[in-house]
Specification:
217 residues; alpha/beta; Rossmann fold; three-stranded parallel beta sheet
């Protein structure tokens, strides 16, 4: 699995990540969502450089212009609910893409042990397409693995791009073992080394879903 950490290069992306991590700035829920959307924009732009392209002819008022445009058939998927602003940011740049959504959550069994439960999924066929699977936090990697397997039940995509702004070292190592390494690229903005006993990323940024939309029941 190829890992691209955009946070390693100085850019405005790091300002958005800093604001998302800041516990004082996090109190502004709208700003948190907006920052996540902006990250989606940046990831989409950088990811677009790796897609396949074709030449098209465009008629202007004065002549014909030949331009290279992306040719991949894209499906943008996200895990509800924390990934929704990130999904929107990516979709803003890939406006003709199809979309998929999965409702997945941690179901605790005993103590800190849990498994990822999928309750709902909707997706077009992925066969012959490029899948962009977005989620704000990549803590253990199990949610991404379970979600991908669910989406790929009716056909695997030609390529998988994972967009996860905050990732853990543990999750990256996990996915490298459980996904096809030659068909996956992980895009992230920060890689954190520590997980708590409940598998939350440290320093991370907290519960992204709650920060976006408020406390859940």
């Amino acid at each position: 699995m190829k890992v691209i950490n955009l946070g390693e290069t100085n850019s405005v992306l790091n300002s958005f990540v800093a604001q998302m991590r800041d516990k004082t700035v996090q109190k502004d829920r709208e700003r948190f969502r907006n920052n996540l959307e902006k990250l989606g924009n940046i990831f989409a732009y950088e990811l677009s450089k790796t897609l396949n392209y074709k030449s098209v002819k465009v008629e202007t008022p004065l002549g014909i212009s030949e331009i290279n445009v992306p040719s991949d058939k894209l499906v943008i998927a996200t895990i509800l609910r924390a990934g929704l602003p990130l999904h929107k940011g990516i979709l803003d740049f890939f406006r003709e893409a199809e979309c998929a959504f999965v409702a997945a959550f941690r179901k605790y069994d005993r103590g800190d042990d849990f498994h990822v439960n999928v309750e709902y999924a909707t997706s077009p066929s992925l066969s012959g397409k490029t899948l962009i699977l977005a989620d704000t936090m990549l803590a253990t990697g199990t949610s991404i693995e379970v979600t991908y397997n669910k989406l790929a039940e009716d056909g695997e995509p030609d390529y998988l791009h994972l967009v996860c702004p905050i990732a853990s070292v543990f999750a990256i190592e996990y996915l490298q073992k459980h996904l096809r390494a030659d068909k996956v690229t992980l895009w992230t903005a920060a890689i954190d080394e520590e997980l708590t006993s409940q598998s939350y990323i440290v320093p991370g940024l907290g519960d992204a879903g709650d920060l976006c939309f408020g406390k859940k029941l």
